[in-house]
Amino acid sequence: MQIKFITLFVFLSGFLQVSAAESSDSITVVAQQDTLKKRPGLFTRIINYFGDANKEKPEKKFDVNFIGGPYYSSDMKLGLGLVGAGMYRMNGCSKEMQPSNVSLFGSVSTVGFYMLGIRGNNLFPKDRYRLNYSMSFYSFPSYFWGIGFYQGNNDVNKTKIKRFQSKLKAEFLFRLGKEFYLGPVLVWDYARAQDVNKDYMYLFDGMSLVQRNYGVGASVQYDTRDFISNASRGIYAYLSQTFRPSWLGNDQAFSTTEFQLRGYKSVWKGGILAGELKGMFNFGNPSWAMMAELGGSNSMRGYYEGRYRDKHSMSVQVELRQHVWRRNGITVWAGAGNVFHDSRTFKKILPNFGIGYRWEFKKRVNVRLDLGFGKSGQNGFIFNINEAF
Questions:
Q1: How far apart are CA 381 and CA 71, in angstroms?
Q2: Where are the strands (E) in the chain, listed by range?
Q3: Cα–Cα distances in Å, from 281 out to 120, 153, 164, 165, 258?
């Protein structure tokens, strides 16, 4: 999900880097006192912490840094957010291999919103196997417009709900060739809607307000990217098929097909052109919580996540990423997307465009602030880590 900011995010950090040095038996008390006097202050250590964050540290088996601070949102009000990025290599992985990565994110606000999550890509020696995973849970006051493009497009349907949701997805991929991977997928989702106005219960199409979904399947990917979380060249193609049958305990039995196609190319010095085409197609009876949605922090940025939902969705976006100076960069993007029930309802196209700022938090790991715009004045600021795609 996305956090929509209306003030600039103020970077703070509660984590300080402490370095240890070997001491000699010959150090005197006077020398120790001199060392204590020369110890940098808190402000200096914070500056040094962020100044060193993007430097490679081959001596560290697990290199992790955190960044956080306050924000204000018209929906979430005053809050505090924190993100972290870690990079590491498993034993047996060569230095020529790109490192494994893990990202942590969390947020709390004064209206009762909270979110905590983790996602990452674990690369095994010689890149023979990959473990891709994501897990999150959040609770927040939200809005619900119903199911289908026309329901979401009608402001009369807008109603407040309190939503709690947990998600888990894990893929274990086997390397079949130089760039091909194939493996099983496990997914689990839990959603609960509370405090729903009785006059708006019809928006849920008679489905239960509590939904549990268990799924299994398989995915295949073709990946020539030079760096997973911030590619500058290469192609990424992904296809996943998951099944949520009734015998697994699903009240709403359905299957989901997902695909992604991404490309990255250097166009001039410091400039990278990136593109993505993606889609989600549900067959059977997906629950209101498992519908394909538009919006969020990665695709159709600026739209309220979940306002537009239906059985299927498709979107496309093209983004220009430009390094400007030292650790600073900017991006601009444009895209379009839609949700639909079947081919007959695939008629309306929602536009999307925006501009963003990038700061290299760690080596090739960016903190991003994006301002996205959509149809009918929809917009939002997004704070996140790693590129949108």
A1: 10
A2: 4-5, 62-73, 77-88, 100-109, 114-123, 129-144, 159-175, 180-194, 210-223, 234-244, 254-268, 271-284, 292-293, 309-310, 312-325, 328-340, 350-362, 365-373, 379-385
A3: 24, 21, 24, 21, 6
Domain 4-385 has CATH 2.40.160.50: yes
Residues 159, 152 contacting (CB under 8 angstroms):
no
Closest CA to 299 of 316, 313, 321, 282: 316
Residue keyed to tokens 């289908």 = 148
What single-letter DSSP state applies at residue 58? T
Structural tokens at position 386: 């790693």
CA 110 – CA 76 distance, rounded (Å): 7
**Separation CA 371–CA 8 (nearest Å):** 11
Span 75-121, pLDDT tens digits: 667 888 888 999 999 999 998 899 999 999 999 988 888 999 999 99
Could you count the other beta carbons within 10 Å of the beta carbon of residue 178? 9
Helix (H, G, I), strand (E, B) or coil at 387: coil
Nearest to 216 by CA among 251, 240, 185: 185
In the Cβ-directed half-sphere of 170, how many Cα atoms lie within 13 Å?
9
Contact 189, 167 (CB under 8 A): yes
Residue written as token pair 């619900």: 144
Segment 114-139, tens digit of pLDDT: 999 999 999 999 999 999 999 999 99
Token readout for 233 is: 């060249």
Which residue's entry shows tokens 């509590």? Answer: 210
Question: What's 227's DSSP letter?
Answer: S
Segment (H or E) for 29: helix 29-37
The upper half-sphere exposure of residue 184, i.e. CA atoms within 13 Å in the direction of its Cβ, equals 3
Q: What is the DSSP letter of 343?
A: G
Q: Give dist(CA 53, CA 51) in Å, integer.
A: 6
- C-alpha 282 chain-centroid distance: 22
Distance CA 213, CA 200 (A): 24
Residue 288: closest CA among 155, 166, 216, 193: 193
